[in-house]
Amino acid sequence: MQKTVNKSKFVVSKIKKEADNVITLFLSPKEKNIAYTAGQYVLVSLNKDEDIHGKFYTISSEPSEDLLALSIKKVGSFSSALHNLKINDVIYISGPYGSFYPTPEMNDLVFFAAGIGITPFFSVIKDIIKRKVESRVRLFYTNKTLRDISFFKEINKLASKNPLLEVFYHLTRDTSSHELIKSYKRININQVQEELKDLRNKNYYICGTIGFVADTRKQLLKKKVKEENIFTESFF
Amino acid sequence: MRKITTIKKKKIAVPKDSICGWVYNDTVKEHFMYPKNFLTNDEEYDADGVGMVGSPACGDMMMVWIKVDKKSQKIKECKWRTFGCASAIASTSMMSVMATEKGGMELNKAIYLKPEQIVDRLGGLPDRKFHCSVLGQEALKEAVEDYLKHAKNSKQK
Amino acid sequence: MKKYIYLDYAATTPIDENVIKLINKTNTLFYGNPGSLHESGRLAKAQIEKSREEISNHLNTSPDEIIFTGSGTESDNLAILGIAHAHKQHGKHIIISTIEHKAVLESALRLKDEGFEVSFAPVDKNGILDIGSFKKLLQKDTILVSIMYANNEIGTIQPIKEISEILRPIKQKTGYPLFHTDACQAAGVLSLNVNDLGVDLLTINGSKIYGPKGVGCLYVKKGINLEPQILGGGQEKNKRSGTENISLIVGFAKALTIATRKQESENIRLKQLQNYLIDKIQKTIPKAYLNGHITKRLPNNINFSFSGIEGEAMILLLDQAKIYCSTGSACSSSDLSPSHVLLATGLALELAHGSLRITLGRKTTKKDLDTMVDELAKIINFLRKISTIKV
Predict the structure, then answer these.
(1) Which pLDDT tens digit goes with each residue over A3-13?
(2) What residue ranges do the domains of chain B occupy?
(3) Which residue is closest to C312 within chain B, CA to CA?
């Protein structure tokens, strides 16, 4: 992050509804494009004034995709304004920032996502598959209800085509049965341990609300997972 | 601070903080009111790496200066300055303690220091102040990356 | 035990001793439900009506134009939403200033969501309404204008009478726009004569005039329709339902009477302290900038921005020294946004984050201010020593 922020102009090319209150804005550059690594985030602003900072959103596309995708959950006035954007509306992007991406030597990855915390993982998983990286990925994805699961179809498609990717869905407020739903309560470390068998020699990435990330990390540490094998990104 | 209340001629001493508590816990208070490792004069400080995050417009800005032990590749010294609220000051202070204690933090551990680790050591921060610990960690990361960039350049020379 | 120095009178005031006594007495003697037909109810009702008349005298209006509510915020909501909904067939345009209290601002934003058009009349760098820009905002379908009499953050006093004069010729033709003012900070300091001011609606509350919290009122000129916001038993002539809090209403009226009686002498005393404090801060602390107008401001309000300092840190260190003030910084607010009032005056964000609001009151002494400035100077020195911003 710098003192002054260099903003690049983008326009909204496409808008897709992903889940209740979640849309993806597909952006195309009007000036310079942003070169990013999967898992990174950008600063989004509706004002080109350099002093007026906006908010950070994780990129949900992977680097080789044509359009820069931002998947945004409507929670407050800024995200509501983004939800009100139309095709051809202008938006200013700065960045990218962040280092929430696995390094090449990590071959056994465990991802914990809660709600819209799925965005960096969606980008990373697509990137890993695109670049044919031979990493095992197990994604534990928690949501309140079936309708809240963003990228449900896409993730299932990726999992069905890629044996190295396994997805475990957890719902906390819904009992509508679906064959893919693993459990109807919050992710629990004992359940995870049952699935992973051995918690050692893996790298754990956690993304979601401050509370979810703090709680999941604590559970991993309790099970003697090393601090250096845990990576976090809290959305606030 | 004790407040004396008289009820039916019986004096009861009522410690105020036990009723209302301060805004932050004791650890945060300590690092806010008596911050550790801040740098008074940066012009004379010969840093190996410098990091800066935030801006005055944001209401949060931190600068971090580190000295690195070339042999062990550990952080020897970590100095800082912060423009920000009590949580921001406490976060940078605690981060600087974590970076230099027990012989100093290894550089790759410093790059991957998590804001949650700073919050844990502070004994907790309100959620809306979490971003202060994120800034603290990012400032340290920038200082380390700055050092590594210079170290790489001087090697290439 | 170290004495505390309370300098946040604009946030709220301690209740006057005589008001407390009256509230207690009223609670003991008049506990009936004012809506009941029996004597217990009628006695309670009489207390309310007595208070209503007392307040209406201070506003130079008639008692049936006063509606009691639970707070200044509730009165503002009732004014903005109540008028807009009741008069929407005449127009859907509202004008408020950029420095209104959040109770007016949020109500106006709710109207915006409902399809009303809301315009924000800008202020100049001292927080005074830009009359030229305001005039340009007036439209054929403007039904309501709301401009606060005196601002709670920077103390700026608006030219309410001048604004009502601008609206008069338009109103003579169509009856619109109606004019509301939030006078919570003005009560006990400036004249509340609604005829002089030329307003159709006016808000005041108890907590700023050494009265109780949890009570306010809205003056509504006779003949103006208002949609009630709280529905139920039809109290307050159907304008605000709910069993009336007799003792708070009685306390509120008494507080206003006492405040009005002390108004002139207090204004003189506070103005002297205000001048003293502004001078002392400017002489003691470098890079200190006064926010708001130098003369058109409440006599108890002092608001400074200090370069290189963040407000929450400043307030908490003052709190540790038992000095209680407030700030307009982002970090101190629950939604992490800096004071919209300071930003509306064009103040740079960095200085908005470093703002300190000091408001004086009945118990404030010169010695308090000396102690305060001494502590403040030490605190600012310390925070500037560790700040990234070189001052």
Answers:
(1) 566 889 999 99
(2) 26-156
(3) B85
Which of B41, B42, B83 to mutate against chain C (most C CBs within 10 Å)? B83
Residues in chain B with CB shorter than 8 Å from the CB of A213 are 116
Contacts of A197 (CB under 8 A, 6+ apart): none
Residue C333 near residue C387, CB atoms below 8 Å: no
Q: Chain B within 8 Å of A236 (Cβ-Cβ)?
A: yes
Angle in degrees, CA B67, B70, B76, rounded to 5: 35
- What is the mean predicted confidence (pLDDT) over C374-388? 97
Do A230 and B114 lie within an 8 Å CB cutoff?
yes
The answer to whether residue C69 is domain-embedded is yes
Q: State yes or no: is B58 an active-site residue.
A: yes
Closest by Cβ to C387, choosing from B2, B82, B129? B82
Asked if B119 has any chain A CB less than 8 Å from its own CB, the reply is yes
A103 at the B interface (CB within 8 A)? no
Q: Express each pLDDT in C24-63 by its tens digit.
A: 999 999 999 999 999 999 999 999 999 999 999 999 999 9
For residue range C351-368, list pLDDT tens digits in order: 999 999 999 999 999 999
Chain C touching partners, 3 or more CB pairs below 8 A: B
Residue C277 to residues A149, C371, C374, Cα–Cα distance (Å): 58, 11, 11
pTM of the shown model: 0.92
Q: Whole-angstrom Cα distance, residue C27 to residue C32?
A: 9
Fold observed for domain B26-156: Sufe protein. Chain: A (3.90.1010)
Q: Both tokens of residue A115? A: 């709600």
Residues C88 and C33 in one domain: yes
Tell me what the mean pLDDT of segment C121-141 comes to. Answer: 97
Examine the domain organization and report whether C279 and C351 are in the same domain. yes
Domain of residue C92 covers 17-257
Cα-to-chain-centroid distance, residue A188: 20
Same domain, C244 and C331: no
What ipTM goes with this model? Answer: 0.91
